[in-house]
Specification:
Blueprint (H helix, E strand, L loop, with lengths): L12 E6 L5 E6 L3 E8 L2 E8 H6 L7
Antiparallel strand pairs: 1-2, 3-4
């Protein structure tokens, strides 16, 4: 599954782990993406959405 929200386009971010001795290693921050049934343009579809969009009501869940 792609780590991108279909609603807000939130995706992976990259950066560094920084140790106490200031060594840097690459890492990624991944959004909490859920595959849910939602109503899109009047029809039920499965979409990938982040939990922030679910919680804020930007996605209307299908029952």
């Amino acid at each position: 599954m792609a780590n991108v929200c279909d609603i807000c386009n939130k995706g992976e971010r990259s950066g560094f782990n920084v140790s106490h001795s200031n060594l840097k290693t690459k890492r990624k921050w991944r959004p909490n993406i859920q595959r849910v049934k939602a109503i899109v343009n009047g029809e039920v579809k499965r979409i990938n959405t982040c939990t922030r969009c679910l919680r804020s009501g930007k996605v209307q869940r299908a029952v």
